[in-house]
Amino acid sequence: MASNALADTFFDWGVIAETFPRLISEGLLNTLTIAAGAIVLGVVIALAAAMLLLSNRWWVRLPARLYVDVFRGLPVIITVMLVGVGLPAAGIRPFGTDPLGYAVLAIGIISGAYTAEIFRSGIQSVDPGQLQAARSLGLSYLKAMRLVVVPQGIRRVLPAMTGQFVKDIKESSLVYLLGLAVGQRELYFIAQEEVARTYNSSPLIAAGICYLALTIPMTYFVNYLDRRLREGPRPDKTPASADPDLPTTPLQPAGGEAR
């Protein structure tokens, strides 16, 4: 029956059980390495680009605007191939022949373009009076932005940033196009190898479970953190009488009994 064929093709639990050990021991670590490197690089690029985008001078904004528009408009696969294949072919080899470095660079450049717009919108949502107040206290523009405005702006866009970080994890699957060496292969690459070995698509389901195990907890944790930051610290509900340093019985007036 069609239902049995579908189950055998995608949910062969024997094949999934065989695939999981390699996915966990090799693929998961490499996926996290690529995603973490890309996220860090993307945040650094995004902060610099966001500062340029907020400039009052058009010639300062122009390079950042071109960067953001180009890498948000290009398909991810084209950027990965341009960086991972095009740069080495042109003699530009900052990572030698290591495809993992080019993978991190490609995903980081893409992430930076999207995160820059997120940072820009968050910073612009902060009341301009915050910057003016900081400047009136003697802080320089850069110091006021770093200590006052940027932290508030980032806090306001935490959910959007999380969405981008989840996207970075998923896009790390495209680096298989660069031909990662043995020991560098991420979740999708390993799943593809297992599909070719077993002639079964169940390893893709196993890889999907691993991706979900990474992305879903991250989303819920940041939503929880964002909610706590918006609510502020919880008020202390401990009654004064519960303080061990305070008397638990009414004080008696001098020379008489309590009334």
Tags for this model:
259 residues; mainly alpha; 10 helices; 72% helix
Secondary structure blueprint with pairings:
Layout: H1 2-10, H2 13-53, H3 58-73, H4 76-89, H5 99-124, H6 128-136, H7 141-156, H8 158-171, H9 187-198, H10 202-231
Question: Would you write up a description of this structure?
Answer:
The protein has 259 residues and is mostly helical. The protein has one domain (7-232): MetI-like (MetI-like fold, Orthogonal Bundle). The chain is built from 10 helices and no strands. The protein has helices at residues 2-10, 13-53, 58-73, 76-89, 99-124, 128-136, 141-156, 158-171, 187-198, 202-231. Helix 5 packs across helix 7 and helix 5 packs antiparallel against helix 8 (158-171). The termini are far apart.
- The coarse silhouette is globular
Classify the fold: give the CATH topology: MetI-like fold
CATH superfamily: MetI-like
> Which percent band covers the strand fraction?
under 5%
Helix content: over 70%
Radius of gyration: 27 Å
Q: What top-tier CATH class fits best?
A: Mainly Alpha
**Number of E strands:** 0
CATH-scheme architecture: Orthogonal Bundle
Question: Structural class of the helices, strands and pairings?
Answer: mainly alpha
Measure the end-to-end span: 89 Å
Domains counted in the coordinates: how many?
1
